[in-house]
Structure prediction request, 303 residues.
Amino acid sequence: MAGTNPDTSNTPSRLVVDIAILTYKRPDHLHACLESVLLRAQVSDSFSIRQVTVVDNDPASSARNVTRDVGATSKLNVWYVCEPEPGVSAARNRALQEARGADILVFIDDDEVVTADWPGGLLRVMEETGAAMVGGPVRTEFTHTPPAWVVEGGYFRREEPPSCTPQSWLRTGNLALRLNQIGSRQFDPSYGLTGGEDVAFSSDIRRQGGSLQWSSTAVVTELVDETRTTLEWVASRQRTATANYYRAHRSIWPGWRLRIRIARTVGSVILSLVPLLVRRRDPNSRIHLKIRLARARGALEVL
Prediction:
């Protein structure tokens, strides 16, 4: 759909990398994401970018024009595909299919923009450690002034361990996969409409002996607008994220171990409610109370 990469030779010392951007009805976000990827994702001595693939999960192909317009002047190959089967798992599996022939597939979501050491930071850690998967930080940038309770509660903060720190599971919003270690594995379609497919997929890779590592320098920034800083949205996210975490680990932990972990989560939530109940006349405390109860409900849904 766009220009060609001037050097995509696959020599033993140079890894061939595909980048996949998943999108669904967010043309403005996609425009910013794709622009940043095409600006930052340049070839190096250790890797070359074979193509940047936009996987559109909208059957109406709403991302086609944005992909065409932004990619028109790029020196990198920009490829558009529509995956009409609904759900994030189907879109990720389509990206895996389109990446056949590459050494590494790097995932990024359409509401993110990349920074200077991306994807290089992910790939360096992968080379240094031999990891099957390497994740990186996703930092939040609000497109508006968020409510005070959002900042106070840290609901969009994520842990950032040092580089080369082994991980138990990884999110796919900023992730590199070594395809010869992934093999024929696919993302579980049962998580397609709920999320959590990344926890299940990466946990399975680790259980099968693959190494999961972290790059602290390959940062992407997630753009969060006002629709995602409402009490309803944050509470729903906390509930589904907690439920998906335990659903993904149901096949790893025996029934009794799963129940113990869920009980610990619910117990921790209950203990955290005490100071909030004391301050229940404070509007922000009431909001935090509702969100933590939503987290407990998510854990209990798995039982």
